[in-house]
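As a warm-up, study this chain.
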Amino acid sequence: MAADRLQFQIKEIAEESPMERIEKPVVEFTATNNKKEDRKAEYRKIFEAFDMKTAVTLMLKLNKEFGGHEAVLNEYLLSLQFGIEMEKYVSNKAEYERQKEIKSKTILPSSFITLAILEQDLLNKINKENSSGKVSFSDNQRTMVQGPPTKESMSPLPDVPKPNVIDVKSKNPVDEILSEIRNMDPNKP
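Now compare it with the structure written out below.
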């Protein structure tokens, strides 16, 4: 469900990975570092305020009015950023819109967090972690080390020795009975 995916993505971005906990020496401190930290703090704030039950309830109640689940979730994310309870939208739409307009003036529109921005930030984080050496070998490095991939090397199953099978063809019971009857035949010399 969309709300589960949203909760997972926020959690992944808000939590620090073990690689981020290790302090790296910084040569220069720029405004982009501050911006990244501010964005991360905003994700933590959203993660702490996010409620799955509320998100699902709002998605069901406001689906037709907003035109889809994603639009409802985007509005819910904005309400979490502004510190407004979106449940007010259901009871008093005008009051909610007034509070939203007041709060939106204090935050730059470029810093709004939506589902698309959240997904992009998560992809950037994953790519950064992968390029920082967390992954041991990429596919290109494997082919350089091992040569071209073969059918056996592409198999995810471990190598298992082939069993030696002895011919286990069963004997026909009718042949045994007929030979026994022939042996008992008195006319046979």
